[in-house]
Write a structure and sequence with these properties.
This protein is an all-alpha fold. The chain is 79% helix and 0% strand. The longest helix is centred in the first third of the chain and has 28 residues.
Length: 117
């Protein structure tokens, strides 16, 4: 479990770092409104990642049931984004996918340098 907690922490740090860098870049090259939309999506992605980690952690315990409410988080946000004029769907969705970038970096690093810790 210690490796799992280390992986969880590493993915969270990568996701937060990518979120900060990309949000600032979007703010510089586009606008503050789009950057805030991206940030909202990225925060939702971090919450999703934490919920996923909690479900994976529970697999090892006596409770084998995995929650299906994680996806409802994104669906709810997308519904709210379609209803409000200030929110834009594409930056929110791309922000949500920021945690996937962290996963890809981790997998590539693990594949290319398996002894790295």
């Amino acid at each position: 479990m210690q490796d799992f907690y280390r992986l969880q922490q590493e993915l969270l740090v990568y996701t937060l770092a990518f979120t900060a860098i990309i949000t600032i870049a979007v703010w510089i090259f586009y606008s503050l409104n789009i950057a805030l939309n991206y940030l909202l999506g990225a925060i939702t992605g971090v919450v999703y990642l934490k919920m996923l980690a909690r479900d994976v952690e529970r697999i090892g315990s006596q409770n084998q049931k995995i929650s299906k409410t994680r996806l409802a988080l994104l669906i709810g946000l997308m519904i709210v984004a379609t209803r409000l004029d200030q929110l834009q769907i594409l930056p929110i969705f791309l922000g949500f996918l920021t945690y996937k970038l962290s996963l890809m970096i981790y997998v590539l690093r693990s594949a290319l340098a398996p002894d790295y810790r």
